[in-house]
Amino acid sequence: NHMQPSLIELPKHLDLRGNLSFIEEDTHLPFKIKRVYWIYDVPGGEVRGGHAFKETEELIVALSGSFDVILHDGEKEYKFSLNRSYYGVFIPKMMWRGLENFSTNSLAVIVSSTNYDADDYIRNFDDFIKQKKLT
Ligand code: TYD
Q1: Were both Cys, which of 5, 56, 108, 121 would link to 39 (CB 3.0–4.6 Å)?
Q2: 6-134 maps to which CATH number?
């Protein structure tokens, strides 16, 4: 169900040389990858996000360290605590999101279904709720 947020387990290959994980668009994602970006050097206590996307779908992976992904679909809240580099949170379009509780040196990588477009953001929670009720 691509309307619901979900935790996606990625492959991991463990051997004496260390670990390897990967994402394949066709195997692991319900969208095509247009963009990859990453969030790093987040000062303690800072919160990222605080917006929703009208069209963009994403997968967020904690490549290093840990943080929480808090989602709201207009009715209920979801919380995913990420601390392994072989799990990703799939975020459908029209989900309010926040990233918080970043550990020191954490690194979030986000694969995204769109190019960056400031017009795809809804930055006001009340506007988000209004738009949700229209759909
Ligand atoms: P923003 O979306 O506010 O970050 P977060 O989702 O963590 O709250 O983005 C921060 C700044 O970076 C903002 O000025 C827009 C810019 N930006 C890009 O230019 N390209 C991108 O792909 C992203 C995600 C952000």
Answers
A1: 108
A2: 2.60.120.10
